[in-house]
Specification:
The complex is a heterodimer of chains A (116) and B (611). Chain A has three helices and no strands. Chain A is mainly α. Chain A is elongated, with a radius of gyration of 20 Å. In chain B, α8 packs antiparallel against α23. Classes of the chains: A mainly alpha (116), B mainly alpha (611).
């Protein structure tokens, strides 16, 4: 795999973080967090990728594989990561909805409850 | 071929599965039974985890307990399995977590009244995350448990869904910690790319035989950023005060007492087992001694200027995390032993103080020190418990905090930092003094009554939503946990065996090579003899000095208002203080910006060659 995928993954992490810094809306901030996390998906999949290799699926009968496969471990990690992301995003969006209900705004600049 | 002892290897998985199964059971069944049944089941489950981790600790102090899940034990040092490794430090933290959860649940019987079963579910899931995080020997599992603990903690922080502060605190906490977790996951990815392993012992084994590389340094920096967001090192600490100020008191107990120290634990666990051969110890020592000192100073200054009792305690946690980072950062067994005792003593004292804050909110409907002037004068027991907590935080012997501080100070001096005792004394005096000042004002009505004008740039805590109906008397289920926690902290300083046990635990912790050998090759552990003296004359003198200084700080805070304004110093420090306070803005974007700054600073400290 070329270096391109690694550059993209770090770029996604940073651009997501930058999006949260500049965010004027909490829903936007939560989605930026997901963008950041996408960087980790790209990184993990890029680590396991091999040019010309097939998916890590083996048929019956179980014999020693004679062909190259991509690394299944990082794919399993990515899947776990997706599950984590779904949980956290759902929770944070629920908090955002509730903040909007109570405060009438989603702009973090206008939330002044926790200072000093 | 050596054989793995599987006699007690079933204990670590049990410590994890009890709370997970019970939390599911509670969630399914809580509508069908009455609240006391839910309380009893959850508390009994947490108490079972206490028993399991205590048994594990008794066993692991003679050698690490290694569990290869589903029997995937390594053959000739090679394994594709996933491992749980419990050594005395991991077990000690797991035990602390279980004890604090049990006491917090007892406190919640009468405290968190509005909560139905989902509160208990979340607390049990949180416990499962902490147990897993403390006991695992696998880097990717650390990320998973980090997020399990995180998700439960965000939900517990934002639990009061009618209170905007609570929601905002949960949001800040969630975004910061998740971003930290993703950085850590990137670090995990880098390491996997380099070594093809995820287990801590395997990773360490491979990296020990490789020359230093930039990729490994980058992985270390990313992992540290992730763990130390949870561990609240400056400048990653901003979420902590927000989350603590709004979470219910029993939840704050779990945050300050064990979750934040767990972040610090993870950072050093990973360093010792995986990185200690690749990275120059000088760089690491420099990083943590400097960052620890900065964290300690920021935390104690903010602590001193807070008037919200819970926020004040939160800043004191940040200050103490700075001290723990310094003590562990000396990278010696003695410093580690000091930090262990300090963490344990601190967990007792700080948890008791948070529960006192909870009682305050339940009785008076506020945690604002100025607002509550003299309101607690009629209490008979609570005021003295608060004084004891303040003195414990200020390291008055024989509290466990005092023993930990004395040993850490000695370790600092012998590691070549003669100013270390000054830092420890000043920080414990400032934080303890702030608590004593608040106690004096609230429970004894000391000092002049001030106008209650709230400043716009400060969270006072006078509008915090109650968790209970107003209480006229303090029920025994709320009083008993406070007393038990304070006694526990005293026991750490007084009971003779604790000190040498901490030393042996520290010897285990700093020996990464032995960790690898025992996990992969079932090599027997070598138990070193304890050699440090327990209480020394100098340690005792410095402890009493910090306690006396704390009383002085409290006195100046209470009566020194006039003096304060006259001093030329006051004008000088006003501007930096305002800037520091403005940095704690409650704005999640600011916090993320600081996170990136911190990442760059860590990278500079660890990655750039010096001299």
């Amino acid at each position: 795999m070329s270096v391109y995928a690694y550059v993209v993954s770090v770029w996604l992490l940073l651009v997501g973080a930058f999006g949260i810094v500049r965010s004027r809306n909490l829903i936007h901030a939560v989605l930026c967090l997901s963008v950041s996390q996408s960087g980790t998906y790209v990184l993990l999949l890029a680590i396991g990728y091999q040019r010309g290799a097939s998916p890590p699926v083996f048929g019956e009968p179980a014999t020693k594989p004679t062909f190259r496969v991509v690394d299944p471990v990082v794919q399993a990690m990515t899947l776990t990561d997706v599950v984590v992301s779904a949980t956290v995003t759902a929770l944070l969006l629920a908090l955002a909805v509730q903040i909007h209900k109570r405060n009438g705004t989603l702009d973090p600049d206008e939330l002044r409850n926790l200072q000093g | 071929m050596p054989v793995f002892d599987t006699g007690v290897a079933w204990l670590p998985p049990v410590a994890l599965t009890i709370p997970i199964l019970l939390s599911a059971a509670v969630l399914v069944g809580y509508r069908r039974v009455r609240r006391p049944v839910v309380d009893a089941v959850a508390t009994a489950g947490a108490a079972c985890v206490v028993a399991v981790t205590a048994a594990l600790l008794a066993r692991s102090s003679e050698g690490r307990v290694v569990t290869w899940s589903a029997g995937w034990a390594p053959s000739h040092g090679f394994s594709v399995g996933i491992v749980l490794v419990s050594d005395p430090v991991g077990d000690g933290i797991a035990l602390t977590a279980a004890v604090l959860v049990t006491l917090a649940l007892v406190f919640s019987w009468r405290y968190v009244e509005s909560a139905e079963g989902h509160f208990h579910t979340l607390v049990l899931l949180f416990l499962a995350g902490m147990e897993g995080f403390a006991l695992t020997g696998d880097l990717f599992d650390m990320f998973v448990f980090f997020e399990l603990m995180g998700a439960a903690a965000y939900a517990l922080t934002g639990m009061k869904v009618e209170d905007v502060g609570s929601l905002q605190g949960g949001m800040n906490f969630g975004i910061m910690n998740s971003l930290g977790a993703y950085m850590a996951l990137m670090g995990v990815g880098f390491l996997y790319a380099r070594t093809g392993n995820l287990g801590l012992p395997q990773l360490g084994e491979v990296l020990d035989h490789q020359p230093r590389s930039t990729l490994v340094v980058a992985a270390f920096v990313m992992l540290m950023a992730g763990f130390l967001v949870k561990g609240a090192m400056a400048p990653f600490h901003f979420w902590l005060a927000d989350a603590h100020a709004v979470a219910p008191a029993p939840v704050c107990v779990l945050f300050s007492g064990v979750m934040v120290p767990l972040g610090v634990y993870a950072a050093f666990r990973v360093y010792w087992v995986v990185f200690s051969h690749q990275l120059a110890p000088g760089d690491i020592r420099r990083t943590f001694v400097v960052m620890g000192a900065v964290t300690a100073v920021v935390g104690s200054v903010m602590c001193l200027t807070s008037r919200n009792f819970k926020r004040l305690l939160a800043y004191s946690t940040i200050a103490h995390v700075g001290l723990f980072l310094s003590a562990l950062g000396y990278l010696t067994a003695a410093g580690t032993a000091g930090a262990l005792l300090y963490v344990a003593g601190h967990a007792g004292v700080k948890s008791a103080l948070f529960l006192i804050g909870g009682v305050m909110l339940a009785r008076y409907g506020s945690v604002d020190e100025i607002d509550l002037h003299g309101r607690g004068r009629d209490t008979r027991v609570m005021k003295w418990l608060a004084v004891a907590g303040g003195l414990g935080l200020a390291c008055l012997p024989p509290f466990g905090t005092a023993l930990g501080k004395a040993i850490s100070e000695d370790a600092g001096v012998s590691a070549g930092y003669p100013w270390a005792p000054a830092l420890f004394v000043v920080v414990s005096a400032l934080t303890g003094g702030a608590v004593l000042r608040a106690t004096g004002r609230i429970y004894f009505g000391m000092g002049p009554r001030q106008e209650g004008a709230e400043r716009p740039d400060q969270t006072s805590g006078s509008r915090e939503e109650r968790d209970t109906r107003p209480l006229r008397r303090v029920p025994v289920t709320m009083l008993a946990p406070i007393v038990v926690l304070l006694l526990g902290s005293l026991a750490i300083g007084v009971v003779p065996g604790v000190h040498s046990a901490a030393q042996r635990a520290a010897e285990f912790f700093v020996d990464g090579a032995a960790y690898q050998r025992q996990a992969l090759l079932a090599a027997p552990a070598h138990v070193a003899a304890a050699h440090l003296p327990e209480w020394t004359g100098r340690g005792l003198a410095l402890d009493f000095a910090s306690a006396a200084l704390a009383v002085l700080v409290a006195g100046v805070g209470l009566w020194g208002g006039v003096l304060h304004e006259r001093l030329p110093l006051a004008r000088l420090r006003r501007r930096p203080l305002a800037a520091l306070r403005a940095a704690h803005s409650g704005h999640v974007g600011d916090y993320v910006a600081w996170l990136l700054v911190g990442l760059a600073v860590l990278g500079g400290f660890v990655g750039l060659p010096h001299r």
